[in-house]
Amino acid sequence: MATYKGIKGFNIQTVSSDPPAPFTGQVWYNSTSATIKYSGIGTAWSTGGNLPSPSSHQGGAGTQTAALSFGGRNPSNAVVNVTDEYNGSSWTGGGNLTTARQSLGNAGTQTAGLAFGGNPGGLNATEEYDGSSWTNGGNMGTGRSYVGGCGTQTAGLAIGGNPTTDACEEYDGSSWTAGGSLTTAGNSIKGAGLQTAGLAIGRGPNRSTLTEEYNGSSWTNGGALNVSAKVGAGAGLQTAAIAFGGETATEEKTAATEEYNGTTWTTSKNMNVARENLAGAGLQTAALAFGGQTVPGATDATEEFSGGNSITFTVGTD
Asked: Are residues 290 and 174 located together in one domain of the fold?
């Protein structure tokens, strides 16, 4: 008779408590509750409320039910200062950025957002959002666009950028200081996590599967993506992240989605709309994808990700 080990090549892991962030497809035995559990049932992208107008190259922050979209490029390729807020079903206009910008870094929440860098001109300007309006914060040490971002308004992280660099900077709510350099320089990086536990996912200019993990002072290489891409989006935490969309090595827009457990990336359900230069927000189990470039141009599409659900099988003790 076939066994799990015979099919998969390894036994089901026994743990005393459920993993805090199981990856899609993970199976484990909880010895405390005497149950076998499987993660991933019901994982899917579903259609959310459209942005007020098509947009790409914008910043994103917040959660699936309280997200923020700011800056970017409209269908006429004009750089905009528009801000929109999402409540879990629809978008409404918020306060405009002080400086219109695209391909910018982002961090924070809907009521405490952070925007930094971007084009035109490789900006070093930083802005802070309080839920209704943007005000100027401290400038980055080095102006750049296509910069990755993660963290909070008072503990943000700027990762790489264009011109292609390995430089990272840390924000304390008023000023930026130099952080540890990436192991490999890059731009168009997907950021996720916190300032002291960040992720740099994929990168350009050559589309890469490289992932790096930050501990608050230095970067080390993590697990490789399954699909090499740049200008995608990321969300979640260092040990429970999600990456979606982007431009592949064949210069095609992708709908690919992957989930990270702190060690390994696992292929998940594709988005409904393939796109690059999109924005993201939320957690691995409740992420949000919005805007981006499709074929032929920018989209207003929003998608909501539901993941991390599990089904439980009770094991008899006889």
From this structure: yes
